[in-house]
Design goal:
The protein contains seven helices and nine strands; from the N terminus they run H-H-H-H-H-E-H-E-E-E-E-H-E-E-E-E. It has 214 residues and is of the alpha+beta class. Strands 1, 2, 3, 4, 5, 6, 7, 8 and 9 form a nine-stranded antiparallel sheet that branches. Strand 4 (123-126) and strand 5 (129-134) form a beta hairpin. The protein is globular. The protein starts with a helix and ends in a 10-residue tail after the last strand.
């Protein structure tokens, strides 16, 4: 997907106007965060199962409503989040020589790491699956140890020259007998990341937009 930066900028500008109009006046901020946190459980119950809430959990919605950005969040999600890889997305991923990987262990403790290789080290298997090899690093296996306990992962691909990025949230599997092992001599195993829900997003480097998973 080609992202029209001017459209995204217009959406953000509109959100700033809405946020200014709906934001609390000076003196009204006292205790506001406490109020939001105090209402979190009630909001969670209210939002659970509500139509259109698959992208944002109660915490995100609470802050969006507080600062008047819910319409912007929904609009950006509608315009820039996709449910599959298109040809330009495939090219974007397969020319990458690195990405950042976010994982968490079974207790939710996070870790972020850098994964790199020659351009093409990440293979787009199909329109909802990517794969890449793992080679011997420092022997700690923090990221993939986490993935064995909690397979939900997040990947961030960045093109620093063009100022674009793509985020992928998905489910990782690890296989030392994967058919792709033959294409990567010396690899310990192949990691495949499947996108169980529409979590693809490519956007302008200048604007930070990340829908939270439920």
């Amino acid at each position: 997907m080609t992202v029209k930066v001017e459209e995204l900028a217009a959406l953000v500008a509109g959100a700033r106007v809405a946020g200014h109009a709906l934001a609390a006046q000076p003196g009204e901020q006292t205790g506001e965060l406490e109020r939001i946190l105090g209402d979190f459980d009630r909001a969670s119950r209210a939002l659970k199962g509500a139509p259109g809430e698959e992208w944002f959990h109660a915490g995100s919605r609470s802050l969006q409503d507080r600062f008047g950005t819910r319409p912007l969040a929904d609009r950006i999600t509608e315009k820039f989040v996709k449910d599959r890889l298109e040809p330009d997305d495939r090219a974007f991923v397969e020319r990458a020589d690195m990405f950042f990987l976010a994982t968490a262990d079974g207790q939710g403790r996070p870790s972020c790491s850098y994964k790199g290789g020659d351009p093409g080290f990440v293979t787009v298997v199909d329109d909802t699956t990517i794969a890449f090899p793992n080679y011997d690093g420092n022997g700690m296996f923090l990221s993939w140890g986490n993935a064995l306990a909690n397979p939900e992962v997040g990947l961030l691909f960045i093109d620093f020259e063009r100022g674009h990025r793509m985020r992928l949230n998905g489910t990782a599997t690890i296989d030392g007998n994967d058919e792709l092992m033959a294409a990567h001599p010396g690899a310990q195993f192949i990691v495949r990341v499947a996108v169980p829900q529409p979590d693809w997003q490519k956007e302008s480097w200048a604007t930070d937009v990340l829908p939270a998973s439920s």
